[in-house]
Amino acid sequence: MSLRATLVAVLTVLLLSPAVPVAAHDASSAPADRRPSSRPPVSVRLASFNVLGSNHTMQSRSWHRGRTRAKIARRWLRNEGLSIVGLQEAQVDQLLVLTRKRWKAFPSPRHASNTETAQSVIWRRSRWRLLEAHTFTIPFARGQHRKQPVVRLQNRRTDRQIWVISVHLSAREGARGNRDRRVGRARLVREVRRLQPTRRPIVVTGDMNGHRRVFCAVTGKTRLVAASGGSNDADGCRTPSPMRVDWIFGSRGIEWKKFRYEDGGRLDAITDHAVPVVTATLGRRRR
């Protein structure tokens, strides 16, 4: 067969063969369970809880020992239906009690020191799994620098994800304390702004040892709002009422319900702080 005849035969076969479609690489071809819009919303009960560290009550006649108070706190968490909590002041002995059986923590009390567990995040293992964890550092009292935990959790039922940060700013008085808190706020803001491009909801919990300055800095320099209300826009910074030193902030897409400061009753046997609690719904479309 001549070369010309061979080429004609090959072209004829190609033209008569059925076309094989090429897969389109766009969002619509992705598996449905990986598309954020297809995931159902999820509601989560959150709290920021300064549990009053064991080191503060070792010699006290007015308070139970830290482990005893942690047992009471664990029952309180269960009764409140909480599934994610930012803790402050928790010592290793307390965190071991709090995370027994149903809870997990970062940092783990089995591998961390008291100054590390003093700022921690705990979550119900039946509802959330840990995907990622890291820390950033802020100045604290007496020249210390403490690590603040950041975790990325995934809901086991819906696969929705959330960033959670727990912060404890310095309680030191005077000019040095003001400086430490100013630096701490700035580093918190920097961390939030670093996470914002991930487009996952962010929640910040903490004993901030501050009121207006905390609210105006966080809501003015990030895209977070306070679960307790207030606003910060072109008309100025308007704080919520009441304000305590313990805060919960979160991304604007989160729907907040039933915010309140829990105080009195069983909490009086656990801590000297009021405890902010709220229900946050992730992924609900706003109308």
UniProtKB/TrEMBL annotation:
Pfam families: Exo_endo_phos. It comes from the Bacteria. Residues 47-253 form the Endonuclease/exonuclease/phosphatase domain. GO terms for molecular function: catalytic activity. Residues 1-24 form the signal peptide. InterPro entries: Endo/exonu/phosph_ase_sf, Endo/exonuclease/phosphatase. This is Endonuclease/exonuclease/phosphatase domain-containing protein.
